[in-house]
Write a structure and sequence with these properties.
By secondary structure, the chain is of the alpha+beta class. Helices cover 34% and strands 13% of the residues. It has a domain of 110 residues: Metal-dependent hydrolases (TIM Barrel, Alpha-Beta Barrel), CATH 3.20.20. The protein contains nine helices and five strands; from the N terminus they run H-E-H-H-H-H-E-H-H-H-E-H-E-E.
């Protein structure tokens, strides 16, 4: 939760917003009742942070929330619960490209490792996953149905589905 006048201050101070979008999936059930509708408008303000030039770094906050980052991607692009029946300030939705960037290039930037990871390019560490679908082409609800087929860390396969 950020006070409206703090967005410019975050930008000026060079703050990196390290947040866990999956919290929205559970917190949306009680947040507004506890903090009030006015303060709730700037809770989980991912789009407003980006619009104000504040870098976003997404994570999962495991073990507080499940480790699956696909839940966070879904939350970031829909601002809805997993059933799709309740929505929380949809004006803060991100595009799938913005959400993927927050999990990849944004997180690498936040740990001062953007020269080593966060993108797939020659000389980078080659940490990546292979999914059963293209997240930029599916409906947001299908993000939650996505399966990881392979995980590669440092260019070495460490997980293959079904093995």
């Amino acid at each position: 939760m950020i006070a409206p006048d703090q967005f410019a201050q975050y930008k000026k101070l060079g703050v990196i917003a390290s947040v866990q979008p999956s919290h929205l999936l559970t917190d949306m059930n009680w947040a507004e009742a506890r903090i009030g509708p006015e303060r709730a408008k700037t809770s989980y303000p991912w789009k407003q942070l980006l619009d104000n030039g504040v870098p976003l770094a997404f994570g999962t906050d495991y073990p507080v929330e499940p480790i699956n980052p696909l839940r966070g991607l879904y939350a970031a692009v829909t601002r809805k619960n997993e059933a799709g029946t309740k929505e929380y300030y949809p004006e803060q939705e991100l595009t799938i490209e913005q959400a993927l960037a927050a999990y990849t290039t944004g997180s690498a930037y936040a740990e001062f490792a953007e020269k080593d990871k966060g993108t797939l390019a020659p000389g980078m560490l080659a940490d990546f996953i292979v999914l059963d679908r293209d997240l930029t082409k599916v409906s947001p609800a299908d993000i939650l149905k996505t399966q990881v087929l392979r995980t590669v860390v440092g260019g070495r396969t460490v997980y293959v589905a079904g093995n």
